[in-house]
Design goal:
Organism (chain A): Kineothrix alysoides
Family (chain A): Belongs to the bacterial solute-binding protein 1 family.
CATH superfamily of chain C: MetI-like
CATH architecture of chain B: Orthogonal Bundle
Shape of chain C: flat
GO cellular component, one term (chain A): ATP-binding cassette (ABC) transporter complex, substrate-binding subunit-containing
Distance between the termini of chain B: 9 Å
CATH architecture of chain C: Orthogonal Bundle
Shape of chain B: flat
Structural class of chain C: mainly alpha
CATH class of chain C: Mainly Alpha
Number of helices of chain B: 13
Number of helices of chain C: 13
Order of helices and strands of chain C: HHHHHHHHHHHHH
Helix content of chain B: over 70%
Number of strands of chain B: 0
Number of domains of chain C: 1
Structural class of chain B: mainly alpha
InterPro entries (chain A): SBP (IPR006059)
Largest sheet of chain C: none
Chains: A alpha/beta (about 425), B mainly alpha (about 300), C mainly alpha (about 280)
Largest sheet of chain B: none
Protein name (chain A): Carbohydrate ABC transporter substrate-binding protein (CUT1 family)
Oligomer: heterotrimer
């Protein structure tokens, strides 16, 4: 416990330094003070605030969120809140898009910051942070600047809340059983794959048809590091060689027997179960995957090994959702203040600490961490700013789908990595 | 004679047509217009007019070709097996005295259970590692099989789809049998028509109308095949080889957010559906049509 | 001759029973599997799906009941799907009657249009539909779900009812006509009662599809108190992945009322038969 506390302190310092905002914002008034002072100014006009979050019914965060909303209502008796929170599935996304399409949008919304939001941003549906800060200079100044996501127009619109990272999950007990080192380098990874395969253990739990994204991203990352990973090729000539090398590893790994026999058609929950049940040694997944792991002492999280260097610390991580204030609400002078207050509240450190360990600001130290939690925490913290968002946060839709649907054919040698990537980038730049 | 005054059609057809025109046809016309523009998200505005570009693209799209081919196979299977099994079950249930209610109830089960649950069940049958089928094979000392390999997958997806909705046609056809006035059967019995004869000369001809309806529904239903197929084999797994038009339309609309392309697939589905069901009906109902016209 | 004939008939009967029992086994199996698995935690469903639960518990049901007010959701489902069903039956039987009894120009086109609309995917039409729902101030209201559902289920109902009504003996109608009955009288006092079995079959499917139509429900309804059962239980899948135990429990909870409706409707088919026979 003590250990983790001191650890946290180090990390926090690092994050503050990295974010470069420590001194600048050192004098920021506590959020609550801002609220109370501004509240008195605004007349007690009856306001109805329509809010939407992505906290679904079984998401532990929903309860925290609901309590917070209740508290907000108590503190602001003139504000009525109509909240329409729901798990962010396909129907929900359609609903949000339908709402914005017909002018039925909410005032404040927790929504994606990736390609899902571009259409809405382009239409001018949201107000950007800079504009908000013209009127409210202290607006969410406790959030680290590097955690905001830039929209295609270069502006920032959403206040990040709950983040994520992606990394390699290893059943450490299986590694120990076969006297294998954890794969901190590419060679160790290949040795592990070979050994596991010989002993009837599936090296990688992955499905190429259902959520294969992690595998693609991490092979690109392994081959070229974070800088190449960040590339956004404007033409097929600009595709980094490492992307091709990374994708070619699919075939190498497939030939070594690194994947399940039914990798092309099995499903995500089933391969997850193979990992949980120790039928598979490794899997690549997001931080949310930790929630389902029961054996928290023998499973560890680590950065996916690099092909070019040992002990890589680079990971895929970031904040792909955040709180937006809609233009419609911002332009309503009665609602503006209430929206700002609301977003301040649901992005406050107190709130975030209750719903995540991957927060965009300083949060209290998580205590009593298991081996698994600790390894995940270390992975995220050691990465610092050596992180990048997933590729599909930039290359989305048709282009990304062309990539995803081709990996089975690349692994089996029916298609060449270069051909596929050329096609992907062609589609991407046509749009 | 009695049905000559067509003014009655106003109150007969009016209410339904108003609802359908406003909430179905008008929106679908908008959908067709969308297919001529570039639309990059549900509810997004029509940006650039691209004319028939999407349709040209469809004609050259390999995945579309796979989808059409698989949907064709699916269509034959639904018409032959789904309707066939439905008919067989209905005739059998009609022939037994005890347990009618029981069979009628349990045959309905697969229809009401969600595609997510049925899909999960079949995925647990098919799983290579620890799936039920392979457990049985292992117990029999046989090597496990990759049930969703390139060669087997399509069959393994069609099977549960045919199975799960056979009960739908059972219900419709059984209703058709119940509709046959019992005096017809009684007089047939006096003429010595029992068993196969009764079916061939009495039941089947009287069911032609219902079976024709079932064929129309099976043709259109096979074009809509989507949810169960998607749960069992997302993205037309393996390697896009098991796409149906329904799943491909879903993928382009929701995964790729290529709304205009999805819209053009939707139109193709409707056109194929209308054409094929008209042909099927002409083959099936030629006799019946004549009866209808003589009315 | 008597005895072999009897044994032959008995053998045929048992073959029929064997066929029916085999099919019944395949249809009962998933339901039993669901019930058994609904008593397991999510992980156990994937790891040992076809065994009895190691320690059966009702946590999944308790969870489903605790997280939300499921009784209100049942009531919402009943209102939405019930009203949709009644409106579809009324409108569709009028259309089916009109199309099977009258000859007019463009009838074939109307029928083709109806068949075509069977294949309109909900997501292709949703945006204009939703725009109208908003303009009519029906967002978050049951009626906002009902109207689009009526529209999308009408074509199915018309197609099926046409098939049945075409086969109704027209002689009865003719004699009623000669006795001075008008078209509306014939429709309401003869066609509708005679079509009861078909109406019951159509009703159950319209009810079922309306009940399961998550897409329209999720887009029009926002307030959890207005949610029907499917929309409410759909919430079980969160960003932590689907909880299969909760899913199995909620499928059971979703399925049971619809089975009750089905059994009720089936009874009605038999009743329809007898009453129809008397009238006929």
């Amino acid at each position: 416990m003590k250990n983790s506390k001191s650890f946290m302190a180090v990390i926090l310092c690092m994050l503050i330094v990295l974010s470069g905002c420590g001194a600048q914002n050192g004098t920021a008034a506590p959020v609550n003070d801002v609220e109370s002072s501004t509240q008195e100014e605004s007349a007690k006009k009856e306001i109805t605030l329509k809010t939407v979050s992505m906290f679904g019914a079984t998401d532990p965060a929903l309860e925290v969120y609901n309590q917070t909303v209740e508290q907000f209502k108590k503190d602001n008796s003139n504000i009525k809140i109509v909240d329409e929170s729901s798990a962010s599935n396909e129907e929900w996304k359609s609903r949000i898009k339908a709402d914005f399409a017909v002018g039925n949008e909410p005032d404040v919304i927790l929504y994606f910051t990736d390609a899902n939001s571009y259409e809405l941003i382009e239409k001018g549906s949201f107000v950007d942070i800079e504009t908000i800060r013209k009127d409210y200079p202290d607006f969410v100044d406790h959030i680290f600047p590097h955690t905001f996501t830039n929209a295609p127009d270069g502006k920032q619109y959403a206040v990040p809340t709950r983040g994520f990272y992606e990394a390699l999950f290893c059943n450490k007990d299986l590694f120990d059983q076969y006297n294998l080192e954890l794969p901190t380098s590419w060679d160790k990874l290949l040795t592990a794959v070979e050994t596991f395969n010989q002993n009837g253990i599936v090296p990688f739990a992955v499905s190429f048809s259902d959520v294969p994204h992690y595998m693609i991203e991490h092979l690109v990352l392994a081959a070229g590091g974070i800088d190449d990973h960040k590339a956004v090729p404007a033409s097929p000539d600009e595709i980094p060689d490492s992307w091709i090398t990374g994708m070619e590893q699919l075939r190498v790994l497939n030939d070594m027997g690194a994947f399940p026999v039914d990798v092309n058609a099995t499903t995500y929950p089933l391969v997850g179960e193979m990992f949980y049940g120790k039928q598979a040694a490794m899997t690549i997944d997001g931080s949310w995957f930790m929630g389902g792991i029961e054996d928290k002492e023998n499973v560890v999280v680590m950065p996916f090994p690099s092909m070019v260097k040992e002990n890589s610390e680079e990971i895929i991580a970031g904040f792909t959702s955040g709180w937006y204030i809609t233009k419609k609400a911002w332009d309503d002078p009665d609602k503006r203040q209430a929206c700002v207050d609301f977003v301040e509240m649901v992005s406050s450190p107190e709130f975030l600490a209750k719903i995540t360990t991957v927060a965009p600001c300083e949060i209290p130290v998580p205590s009593d961490m298991t081996v698994l939690d600790q390894s995940g925490f270390d992975t995220f913290v050691n990465a610092g700013e050596k992180t990048d968002l997933p590729i599909d946060s930039r290359i989305a839709g048709e282009a990304w789908n062309a990539w995803v649907t081709s990996i089975g054919s690349i692994a089996e040698g029916e298609k060449q990595a270069k051909e596929v990537l050329t096609e992907v980038i062609d589609i991407f730049n046509k749009k | 004679m009695m049905y000559k005054k067509n003014s009655h059609l106003i109150w007969l057809l009016g209410p339904a047509l108003i609802v359908m025109v406003v909430f179905l046809y008008y929106p679908f016309v908008m959908n067709i217009i969308n297919s001529l523009y570039d639309v990059n998200g549900l509810g997004a505005s029509r940006e650039i007019f691209i004319g028939f570009e999407n349709y040209r693209k469809l004609a050259a799209d390999k995945e579309m070709f796979t989808s059409v081919k698989n949907t064709g196979i699916m269509m034959v299977c639904t018409v032959v097996f789904q309707v066939g099994i439905g008919l067989a079950l209905a005739v059998c249930v009609d022939a037994v005295r005890r347990g009618k209610e029981f069979f009628k109830t349990v045959f309905f089960f697969p229809i009401v259970i969600s595609a997510t649950a049925i899909g999960l069940l079949f995925n647990l049958f098919y799983a290579y590692y620890g799936g039920m089928f392979n457990q049985i094979l292992t117990a029999l000392n046989k090597a496990p099989i990759n049930w969703k390999s390139d060669s087997l997958a399509l069959l393994m997806i069609i099977l549960p789809i045919v199975w799960s909705y056979a009960g739908f046609y059972f219900v419709l056809i059984f209703t058709g049998i119940s509709n046959i006035p019992s005096d017809i059967f009684e007089s047939a019995l006096l003429d010595g028509a029992v068993g196969w004869k009764k079916f061939r000369y009495i039941t089947f001809p009287l069911l032609k109308g219902v079976i024709g309806t079932c064929v129309t529904l099976a043709v259109t239903g096979s074009l809509k095949v989507f949810d169960l197929a998607w749960v069992i084999a997302p993205r037309g797994a393996p390697k896009g080889s098991t796409h149906f038009m329904g799943t491909y339309m879903y993928e382009t609309t929701f995964i790729e957010e290529n709304i205009d392309y999805g819209a053009s697939i939707a139109l193709i589905i409707v056109i194929i559906g209308v054409v094929v069901s008209q042909i099927a009906n002409r083959l099936f109902r030629d006799k019946e049509m004549k009866n209808g016209n003589s009315r | 001759m008597e005895i072999p004939g009897k044994t032959l008939a008995a053998a045929k009967k048992s073959i029929i029973y064997i066929i029916l029992s085999i099919w019944a086994f395949t249809t009962i199996f998933p339901f039993v599997w669901l019930i058994i698995n609904s008593l397991k935690p999510s992980r156990e469903i994937l790891s040992s799906s076809f065994t009895l639960p190691a320690a059966p518990n009702f946590d999944n049901y308790i969870n489903a009941f605790n997280k939300q007010n499921i009784l209100v959701a049942y009531a919402n489902s009943l209102i939405i799907s019930g009203v949709t069903m009644i409106m579809v039956l009324l409108f569709a039987s009028l259309v089916a009657y009109g199309l099977t009894r009258f000859e007019f120009k463009g009838k074939k086109i109307v029928i083709s249009l109806i068949i075509g609309s069977l294949m309109f995917p909900a997501f292709a039409t949703i945006i204009p539909v939703f725009r109208m729902v908003v303009q009519m101030h029906l967002v978050n209201k049951h009626f906002g779900v009902i109207i689009p559902q009526v529209a999308s289920n009408l074509s199915f109902a018309v197609i099926v009812l046409m098939g049945f009504m075409r086969d109704l003996p027209i002689e009865v109608e003719e004699s009623a006509f000669i006795d001075g009955a008008g078209v509306s009288k014939i429709f309401f006092s003869m066609i509708l009662p005679l079509s009861r079995p078909a109406l019951a079959s159509v009703a159950i499917f319209v009810f079922l599809w309306s009940y399961n139509d998550l897409f329209t429900q999720m887009i029009v309804l926002r307030n959890r108190n207005m949610f029907p059962v499917c929309a409410l239980l759909n919430e079980i899948s969160s960003r932590y992945g689907t909880d299969f135990g909760l899913m199995a429990a909620s499928v059971v909870l979703v399925v049971i009322p619809i089975l009750i409706v089905y059994i009720f409707m089936q009874k009605n088919i038999i009743k329809g038969l007898t009453s129809g026979a008397i009238k006929g």
